[in-house]
Amino acid sequence: MKILNKKVLGEVQGIKITMLEVAAPDIARKAKAGQFVALMVKETGERIPLTIVDRSDKNGSITLIFQEAGLTTRLLGSLNIGDSLYAIVGPLGHATEIKKYGRIILVGGGVGIAEIYPVAKAFKKAGNNVTTILGTRTKDLLILEKELKETSDILHVVTDDGSYGKKGFTTDVLTDLLKKDRYDLVYAVGPIPMMRRVSDITKGFGVKTVVSLNALMVDATGMCGCCRVTVGGAVKFSCVDGPEFDAGDVDWDELVKRNRIYEDKEKHICKLIQP
Amino acid sequence: MKKEPVKAEELGAQVRSKTFDEVVKGYCESDALKEAARCIQCKNPTCSSGCPVGIDIKTFINKITKNDYKGAYLTIREKSNFPSICGRVCPAEYQCRKACVFTKKGSPFASNEAINIHFLERFAGDYGMSNNLDVATKRDEKLSKMKVAVIGSGPAGLACAGELARHGIQVTIFEGLHKTGGVLRYGIPPFRMPRTILDFEIDSLKKMGVKFIPNYLIGKARTIKELFSDGYAAIFLGLGAGIPSFLGIKGENLCNIYSANEFLTRVNLMSAYKFPEFHTPVNIGKHIIVIGGGNTAMDAARAALRLQKMNDIPADTTILYRRTEVEMPARRLEIEHAREEGVKFQFLVKPEEFLGDDKGFVRKIKCLKCELGEPDSSGRRRPVEIKGSEFESDCDMAVIAVGLKANELLTKVTPELKLDKYGDVIVDKETMLTSIDGVFAGGDIVGGEGTVIEAMGMAKRASRAIVNYLLKR
């Protein structure tokens, strides 16, 4: 649970994306693309889920990337090399179904790009043709561009403000690609509005689309039901039934609302405690 | 002249319902002596037949009357591993006390006159704890070279580990959560069982050499097969019933509708009642509805009511139950405590739908009234809906406490493990052996939603079988 390496990958106007390499040999050995861990920074802290971005057998470690948004992620970002987490458990959730689909588009928005990376590697290794679309608000928040360039056949980068790559949204590029060519799978991770838009777009083209949801969790092992989402009319637990689901089946309205349950309390605690 | 039962001292309802401090203070020595003296020491006692592990109740009570508290403690320990825990959480009014000769024939639960066996057990247990009493170990040379893995640190896992360690076996307990104790930690609130009791029992196991590995999910980080190749000679599964059931009605995913597991985990395990000192939040409504009639419903309602009072919200917490009070599976003591503290009850009511606002938060609950019909397979009279009796109530927070299903994390990835239609692990009733050689199981993963003492009883049977299994190797 010791932090072996730390790097700030992107920073702009108080928004910070940080990478931590954490010693967790037993999790590292089993982790597959698409899976996550639940962790606690300290004993009085929250349990939060974070995707396993990379793993190393040599270091017995896993890599986590997160945007410092709320109290817990800011506390996590305040840790330094040599510090230890209070708790980490995993690998949790289903792994991404990796097989040869053919032509795949990966869409990563914001810090969701971190979650695209292990999936891109696995899809590529399975012999797929991988086109990756990365989108961020601005250049300084773009992460893992080099890594994803290596694991993708084609890489598109867009920024909201046009400070890097093409100006625009990932969904604009996605629409263009789908208009021109036939693809077998779209896999998207990012802010809910982006994933929802991706889902709306791909529906029109009849392309299978998978998203990885970021529902709120407590134990993250199926015991509480905090992360329940409605998918295809049935109630699912993101932690054990997901985190990936068919995008077209997700009740996005409900997810958006449920992710705001503690908005007031989050604001309150962020004002009270400065890491 | 018939002597009156001795009441255990309790914190006053007004004081206690603003804290998570333990409600029942238990017996002092003179209380225990007085209550023990009420036991008529039946020639053929019936009480023990009501105890799932068959504690020799007559003998331990007799020892209390002779001031032999150590003897009383050791008598209980012959059958039960954690008397201080069971003395607090056992549903005695359905078990030993119901079987007491003082209980009126045909009564659905113990009569008031029945000996307060649980309070006496607790007295003896706490005596043993504060005097660091322990039962003799039977260290065996061959066994002390062997390793056993226990999966899950709830009542079954702890009891099994304790029994095995007593033979000198090297026991490692793997726990998925960051804290050990299972449902004793995340489920049962501190006002019913203070954490000091649980911590003491866990520390005692550690002193006996039991190794605890928290944050470790067998089935995810390691498989059963791999545990065997790691050198564990046998494995005990105390996985528990960890998956919450929901009602399956409209609006159930609205914000501020919690499973009892989520609500209690936030409050008990994550200490959300100390927010913001502890960072895990829990929302507290003005009109809280708890659905269910078991102990978990009582625990949730009493915790919710406390949070209202601690946050200066006028207390308004109501338990909805489909049947009537008599059919409630909860402990009578807990129902009484809940009522004293101000929890309201609505019987013969069936939730139909939750209604929310535009932000997705629950605002109302729609229910139907019921009446009791013919008895169902459980022997309890079935609730029958009354047509056209719909009504709505204010509800800005709800807790669903209608049961739990088997934990699937390990069983799903272990196809060799035979399960029944409920997802529970199938075992041999005598040995608790599963369909995999060397793998035993006990507790809620075997019996569904049982009690702490039942889990311990199964664990004890399993530990005996594990010892025999290891000796034959």
Summarize this entry quickly.
The complex is a heterodimer of chains A (275) and B (473). Chain A is an alpha/beta fold and 275 residues long. Chain A has two domains: 90 residues, Translation factors (Elongation Factor Tu (Ef-tu), domain 3, Beta Barrel), CATH 2.40.30; 110 residues, Nucleotide-binding domain of ferredoxin-NADP reductase (FNR) module (Rossmann fold).
How would you describe this structure to a colleague?
The complex is a heterodimer of chains A (275) and B (473). The radius of gyration of chain A is 18 Å and the shape is globular. In chain A, strand 3 and strand 4 form a beta hairpin. Chain A starts with a strand and ends with a helix. Chain A is built from nine helices and 16 strands. With 275 residues, chain A is an alpha/beta fold. The relative contact order of chain A is 0.13. Chain A folds into two domains: 90 residues, Translation factors (Elongation Factor Tu (Ef-tu), domain 3); 110 residues, Rossmann fold (3-Layer(aba) Sandwich). Chain B has three domains: 122 residues, Fumarate Reductase Iron-sulfur Protein, Chain B, domain 2 (Orthogonal Bundle), CATH 1.10.1060; 167 residues, FAD/NAD(P)-binding domain (3-Layer(bba) Sandwich); 160 residues, FAD/NAD(P)-binding domain. In chain B, strands 5-4-3-6-18 form a five-stranded parallel sheet. Chain B is globular and about 70 Å long. The model of chain B has no long low-confidence stretch (mean pLDDT 95). The interface between A and B is large, with 44 and 43 residues.
